[in-house]
Amino acid sequence: MDTGSRGGAFRRALRGCTGAIAGGLLVLVLALVGAQLYAAQHATPGPGAAMIGGNAAAAVLAVACQWFADRSRGSRAAAAQLAVLAIAAAALWFSWWR
């Protein structure tokens, strides 16, 4: 196996991982909306509009970056994949761990 094929496998794996992360952010937004609807029906506090809006914005940006990465090659694709990771990290940090 030559170096190019290993590099190609790594790039495909990275693209798959960042795609899963972008999709996971979308699923997270759907779960937050569901939790807010449940909370509204049971008169309990839910996640709130700010948390849902922030996570939704992050999900849209991450999916857009992943879409760009899927259609690009080389350093442009790598930069878009790095952006997906940075967006996901920022969304988790500011919405959940802070």
Count of distinct strands = 0
How many domains comprise the coordinates? 1
Give the count of helical stretches.
3
- The rough form would be described as elongated
The major pleated sheet works out as: none
Rg, Å, rounded: 17 Å
The portion of residues forming beta strands comes to under 5%
Unreliable spans are: none
Could you give the order of the helices and strands?
HHH
- Based on secondary structure, the structural category is mainly alpha
The average pLDDT value, as a whole number, equals 92
Proportion of helical residues: over 70%
Span of the ends, CA to CA: 45 Å
Transmembrane segments: 20-40, 46-65, 77-96
Keywords: Membrane, Transmembrane, Transmembrane helix
Fold and architecture overview:
By secondary structure, the chain is an all-alpha fold. The chain has one domain (3-97). Helix content is 87%, strand content 0%. It contains three helices and no strands. Helix 1 (3-41) runs antiparallel to helix 2 (49-70), helix 1 packs parallel to helix 3 (74-97) and helix 2 (49-70) runs antiparallel to helix 3 (74-97). The protein is elongated and about 55 Å long. The mean pLDDT is 92.
